[in-house]
Amino acid sequence: MSRPQGVQPGVLAGNSVDASICARSGTTIERRFTAADLPRLRDAGALNGSQLTARFAFSQFDGHVAIDGELDGTLVLPCQRCMKSFELPVSEQFRLIIVREAEELEQEFGGYEAVLADPARLDLQPLAEDQSLLALPLVPKHEAEDCDVRVVEAEPEADEPEPTQRPFGNLRDLMRKR
Questions:
Q1: Which positions ≥6 away from 11 have C-beta within 8 Å?
Q2: Listed residue (78, 74, 70, 30) closest to 52, CA to CA
Q3: Structure confidence at residue 9 (pLDDT)
Q4: What sign does the dihedral 140-71-53-101 (CA atoms) show?
Q5: What is the pLDDT of residues 119-157, one digit of tens each?
Q6: How would you classify the pairing of strands 64-78 and 51-61?
């Protein structure tokens, strides 16, 4: 039975693929995601207007499905200094290997990061979401010259030191009066 034209080998419904078939045939799949498609990314602060393109190039490595991927796009995030939104360009590469057993997560796979999943029904959306979360900066903010918040210089210290307060300084005198 022949496959309909335009359908890539191993592609199932939606964002699910049979990664084993994709790896055997050397398939490359590209998917576009918005902030609405990636709820954990929205929870991390991504705003409407965020768009990412993920490319997944499947191959085989050491008897496992390997994925050489790229993540490109723009994330719209709130600046943590001025609280206005700004666009953060994202361009990340990742290398994943699909393992079936939790014990295999600790193994070394030649530069690939092990991911526990079923290669017969691999959902690409969580993989793209994981990589986009890893691409987020710890503190999203504009470049200093683009931010509306002005940095206030600290006032220079006066030459005259402030008087030292001694709350119990006269306690000795009070004790003697008794």
A1: 17, 18, 22, 27, 29
A2: 74
A3: 52
A4: negative
A5: 999 999 999 999 999 999 988 888 877 777 655 555 666
A6: antiparallel
